[in-house]
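User: My instructor asked us to take a sequence, write out its structure as tokens, and then describe one feature of it. I'm not sure where to start. Here is the sequence I was given:
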Amino acid sequence: MSVKTDMFLFQFIHGTQCEVKERIKNRIAITCNIVERENKNYLFGAERYTIKICKELVNLYDVHLFQQLDDNYGIDGLTIHSHTNNFFSKQMITETARRIYELKPNVIFCNAGTGNQALYWIVVSKMTKVPIIMFFHNEPKYIKNTMEIVQGLEFVYKQVHGNEQEFYGFVLEQSDKLGFLLDQYIPMEYKDKSYTFYNCIELPQNVDIYTKRNNILYVGRINTDVKRTQLLLDTVSDTNYHTDIVGYSYWDNGYLNMDDYKKYKNIYYHGYSNHVESFYKKANVLVIPSLYEGLPTVALEAFSYGVPVIGYKECKVMKDIIVNGYNGWLVDNDLKSCIDNAMNLDMVQIRENCIKESMKYDIKRIIKTIIQSIEDIE
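Assistant: Let's start with the prediction itself. The structure tokens for your sequence are:
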């Protein structure tokens, strides 16, 4: 272990009396940094995933969810530990470790949407000696790039800031089990303790693949820096393609003002919706212009409704889930010609392919792997 990592461990762990000596076998702590936003209904992908698996796991375990909110999402049997924020201060980490110490779970299942979140909970795991399953909800590049310690720890910050690669390796090494969204994200040296937890969906029944559909669909956060929503909007602006935009645009990096597109009569902005299935049923194609994604749930949901996906080749995961002409299309800079082609095809066979592809993401299959990872903890 390097000198810098030794300093980090000393700062947080040395002399801390939080070791859990007797863990409660059937009790698990699930973590996710679910926070309140301007739109109180809006949840990021890692947060929605966490709620899905909590609904399933409460049938087998005593489940405790650590998050910022008080909400239990109507899940009977789920115990909430609120006001948990992954804020890097000695006081906050010690407080979280104390709560884990008192709970005495058999395992911590961390749904890490960022590198900071992964790093925070690996430290808590080491302080309490409670095993941890670290599930990364993004591709490794994103996790590394979001490992930045900046709040209140100037000494540690000066020693380790900017070395995300080292911290990522530290988390991989120190985690008892690892979970990744795709097989290709698993480092070979950690294959023996790793699992693939695809983003999971609930499969709809009796999908109509024969009735003609006329709409283009976008679902997700609306911004310019990562999701690049404007690439689709600028492509379809002032065309005859009915385009539904479903998602939440908020004041943050890459903010995109949807008011700029209200003048176009073919673009319909619906904001955030809890009933996206109604849009999938009308969509002929889903467009995901993102620069990068972990494993986009909206693509998997679209497949389950027989909706093919258009994605960009530079977004690595798109090449993993889209087979050109089979369940969607990959584009470079020719989005308009790709949309023109898709909107004029007979989609029956492609829709059937999409539904077939979606079956491997069924939550009933994914939850079995998650349960196996929990049961593998000694």
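For the description part of your assignment, you could build on this observation: Residues 166 and 373 are 25 Å apart (CA to CA). Try explaining in your own words what that tells you about the chain.
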